[in-house]
């Protein structure tokens, strides 16, 4: 797994400029860049500059401490779990609020409306 992590970092490093040029609304473009889509990185780049083999070489030469990576992974997982707890708590609060008896009552929906038969009888007597 460590090589895949290094490869991901090498790819990100190699395309950082293009990532930064992308607009925040261009999510599809970001995914195209991250998967090294031929639309942005044609095969000729390898022949011209060794682009793809350069990424693999950078990944192989990268030095990462496995313990440090594990520590970062664990701290990020803990942060994600905390955020998940907060989201679930907020979802429950919203659900409880939706289930409460505090309803909006519109003026044409009075709770003490008279029975339809009583209303018709009253109108007929008038």
From TrEMBL:
It comes from the Eukaryota. The keyword Signal applies. Residues 92-126 are annotated as: Disordered. The keyword Signal applies. Keywords: Signal. Residues 99-117 have a biased composition (Acidic residues). Residues 1-16 form the signal peptide. This is Uncharacterized protein. It comes from Hemiselmis tepida.
